[in-house]
Write a structure and sequence with these properties.
Strand order of the largest sheet: 4-5-11-6-10-9
Structural class: alpha+beta
Number of domains: 2
Organism: Brachypodium distachyon
Strand content: 25-35%
Family: Belongs to the peptidase A1 family.
Largest sheet: 6 strands, mixed, barrel
Radius of gyration: 22 Å
Protein name: Peptidase A1 domain-containing protein
Number of strands: 29
CATH topology of the largest domain: Cathepsin D, subunit A, domain 1
CATH architecture of the largest domain: Beta Barrel
InterPro entries: Aspartic_peptidase_A1, PEPTIDASE_A1, Peptidase_aspartic_dom_sf, Plant_Aspart_Prot_A1, TAXi_C, TAXi_N
Helix content: 10-25%
GO molecular function: aspartic-type endopeptidase activity
Number of helices: 9
């Protein structure tokens, strides 16, 4: 069989995948999917002044009543829009390159953090204590720009203007392309103009928050600590970067067609020089554990929790992200929790502790040290990440996973030899519902995450090809639970109880 012209992650070209139908130790893959919309609940303006300084922490300590949860629009980039004028091969190759660069950057960041701060407190610290202690840390993003496919609608400035930002739990800085745009990528709509906003304020070079970002290679001299702006430089790998000034701005939340409220003083990067593969996004909304992330800055208003529900890959309809408690999710009968794992080297990422992998209901023979975090350089471990597309496991685990599927797959589906990048791949032409072995993650505290077939197999119905949506990384690298496996799960980041929650939901119906 000749090689097909497919070279990468196959995500931008997927047809909407279907609900999961389990039978015994196998799962079925078909091709249907519903749609849905978003709601915005009431918002309490009395505590809408958010930031990341000592005053915020004091207010957080004293506050007893939290605001109702905040819900933001979230959508997936349209496949047709992302691939207009480009070949399928080009888009596949780009997707693979972006994931690869993102992972390499994450590994580098972990190593640098371990070298620079070997004695820092682990990520298992309480959120409030960790926030105050990380005020002196240097913030670098772990995201390879553009690999995050989920966009969040935000309204920034006064008067508020709408922007779509990439949602990313693997980074901390929130930033937009800003006028004057000295070197910028193409985006949908105009860039943010700070001169047109009455609520825009520069963070000065003497502000403690300025110490949370890396300066440009040739930093400006801070002549006046109270008036000179704070310049920043973020490098993401593969020549992707953003350079600009750190600022404070208002983020406005729509409540109804005629009502809105705003959160003032949110730290935002105003990027004047930005390069990378952003595909029309206006910037990036960081949801990591660091003090500059959007999630961290809103804790005083909404508490130590946020959640999201990701629709199918390939779907053009919206999804949502919730800051604060979602009572429907909390009462879900299938809501499971696993504790966030400690990590001495890295505090931006959300680590969990894997114990093993199950395929077809059977535990695979994977050495236990595959899942640990190195005490020497902080490498290894497992993170959950909204910005990485597929899921990745170190080579010993990946080889075992791949072989388990090869051994257990129905021989009625011909194995495609030497298919580029993804493996195993099968010819499923003419088969509406494909039976595949079940796939589950077992955590150290006993929690189990069972996935529907469409979350770990990619099917290209137009070509009759189906591939395992899991790839390998070097033996010492971290494992990553990517957004492809998270689709149609409501995922909760509960930092008050230091745990990750997950419940199966048709996100198009939430």
């Amino acid at each position: 069989m000749a090689k097909l012209p497919v070279y990468s992650v196959l995500l931008l070209f997927l047809l909407v995948l279907s609900p999961f139908l389990a039978s015994g130790k196998s799962a079925r893959l078909n091709s249907s999917g519903p749609l849905y919309g978003i709601e915005f609940p009431p918002f309490n303006t009395a505590v809408a002044d958010a930031g990341c300084d000592g005053k915020l922490l004091a207010e957080e300590e004293e506050q007893k009543d939290r605001s109702p949860s905040l819900k933001l629009h979230m959508s997936r980039r349209s496949p047709a829009e992302a691939t207009a004028g480009r070949t399928r091969k080009d888009s596949f190759l780009e997707s693979a390159q972006k994931d690869g660069v993102r992972i390499a950057t994450m590994h580098r960041r972990v190593a640098l953090q371990a070298q620079a701060q070997p004695g820092r407190r682990s990520a298992s610290s309480s959120p409030r204590r960790a926030l105050s202690e990380r005020l002196v840390a240097t913030v670098e993003s772990g995201v390879a720009v553009g690999s995050g496919e989920y966009l969040v609608e935000v309204y920034v400035g006064t008067p508020p203007r709408r922007f779509q930002m990439i949602m990313d739990t693997g980074s901390d800085l929130n930033w937009l392309q800003c006028a004057p745009c000295l070197d910028c990528f193409d985006q949908r709509g105009p860039v943010f103009d700070p001169m047109a906003s009455t609520s825009y304020r520069n963070v000065t070079c003497g502000d403690t928050r300025c110490g949370l970002v890396s300066p440009p290679a040739a930093p400006r001299t801070c002549r006046s600590s109270r008036s000179d702006p704070c310049p920043y430089y973020y490098w993401y790998g593969d020549q992707s970067n953003t350079t600009g000034d750190l600022a404070l701005e208002a983020f406005t939340v729509n409540l109804t067609a005629s009502s809105s409220r705003r959160v003032d003083g949110v730290v935002l990067g105003c990027g004047h020089r930005n390069r990378g593969l952003f595909h029309g996004a206006a910037g990036l909304l960081g949801l990591g554990r660091g003090p500059l992330s959007f999630a961290s800055q809103l804790r005083a208003v909404y508490g130590h929790a946020f959640s999201y529900c990701l629709v199918d890959h390939g779907s053009a309809v919206g999804s949502k992200i919730v800051f604060g408690d979602d009572n429907v999710l909390l009462s879900h009968p299938q809501l499971n929790y696993t504790a966030f794992a400690p990590s001495a080297a890295e505090n931006t990422f959300y680590y969990v502790q894997l114990k093993g992998i199950l395929v077809g209901g059977e535990m695979l023979d994977i050495p236990s040290n595959t899942w640990g975090v190195s005490k020497e350089d902080g490498s290894g471990g497992t993170i959950i990440d909204s910005g990485t597309t597929l899921s990745y496991f170190p080579e010993p685990a990946y080889k075992a996973i791949r072989q388990a599927f090869v051994d257990r797959m129905d021989k009625a589906y011909p194995l495609i030899a030497d298919f580029p990048v993804l493996s195993p791949c099968y010819n499923v032409s003419g088969v509406e519902r494909v039976e595949v072995p079940e796939f589950s993650l077992l955590f150290a505290d006993g929690a189990v995450w069972d996935f529907p077939a469409e979350n770990y197999f990619i099917r290209l119905d137009t070509e009759g090809i189906m591939c395992l949506a899991v790839l390998g990384t070097p033996r010492s690298a971290m494992s990553i639970i990517g957004n492809y496996q998270q689709q149609n799960f409501h995922v909760l980041y509960d930092l008050h109880h230091n745990r990750l929650g997950f419940a199966p939901r048709r996100c198009a119906e939430v």
